[in-house]
Amino acid sequence: MFHDTKLNNREAVRGAICALSRESEEGYSSKPVHINKIDYLGRKFGLNVPAKDVLEELHIVGEVCNLTSGYWLPSPLRLISLGGWDLIISANPTYILENHLKWKIYITGIGRFCKKQQNRLPYQSFNDWSRIPNDLIKWTTNKLNIAKTRTIPLTINASNCVVYCPWLLKEIDASTPKNKYWKSLNALVIPDKIPCILFKEKISPHFTRSGVLFMEKGKIKSMYEGISQYTKGDRDRFMCGLDILYNIKKKYTIINKDQEKITIRLVRPLPQEERNLFVTIGRENPNYSCEYSFLNFLYPVAENTLLGLGYEKNT
């Protein structure tokens, strides 16, 4: 298992919020709790960082809900199926879960896991919990179809604009510099087969807009600037979808593998929902946001997620 210096802080916050909300061992709670009370009681349980930092971590997994005005609420106990393993969603401290459920619990990343259970505890579907689209091509196509209905007259300054053009490369891996697939629109020759391109235009030193340029035989016909309103996660996912539509090979590299864990390196940062999954089932390198380590039994979950984003293993 990973050595985790944050584990005691998570257990302290779990114990505090459950005690204050009167959560039962079955996972039901009676009332929201203000963050100041969680912080105060958590420090009596050994918390040595702001409670807000830990609550935001637990919120990634879904163990707690962030309400308004500084109030938090523990989530009900449920399981997420991950192949032969289950991810446990509960704000209860680990020792309470082990004593009550009589399971051996494994901790890696933020998440807590047990071997597949045959019981009557409720399950939440993986896609509902992770909020990761089931079909990236369909998701991207829907976004493009919406964009086509909301185009505006062309108002772009090519000299201030860069476009995402991965078709210039046969494949992209972790060693590929960003300037190889982001190019100035000025004087760029766009192949006739490219139906649309993602652009970023620097309007001022403090504002950059992004959108889609729709093409016809290498010429720009219309534009959509709504990408600027996407969440960062959706913008990153949209790029991954374009990679698949362009038939671009995107490679991830296994940089370390032993009997316990596997470490991988990616081309670029993950969309937010996929990153949330990866820090739940593994660990992100704090010095390099595109590098993750997973215990061997959870690596297949990461591998399937990367396949869904259009990644291939660099062999």
Q: Key features?
A:
elongated; MutS, DNA mismatch repair protein, domain I; 19 strands; alpha+beta; 6-stranded mixed β-sheet; 5-stranded mixed β-sheet
Overall strand count: 19
**What is the count of distinct domains?**
3
Share of β-strand residues:
25-35%
Radius of gyration: 23 Å
State the major sheet. 6 strands, mixed
Alpha plus pi helix count: 9
The ordered H/E elements are HEHHEEEEHEEEHHEEEEEEHEEHEEHE
Distance between the termini: 27 Å
Helix content: 25-40%
The average pLDDT score comes to: 89
Q: Which class of secondary structure composition applies to the elements? A: alpha+beta
Unreliable stretches, pLDDT < 50, 5 or more residues? Answer: none
Outline: elongated
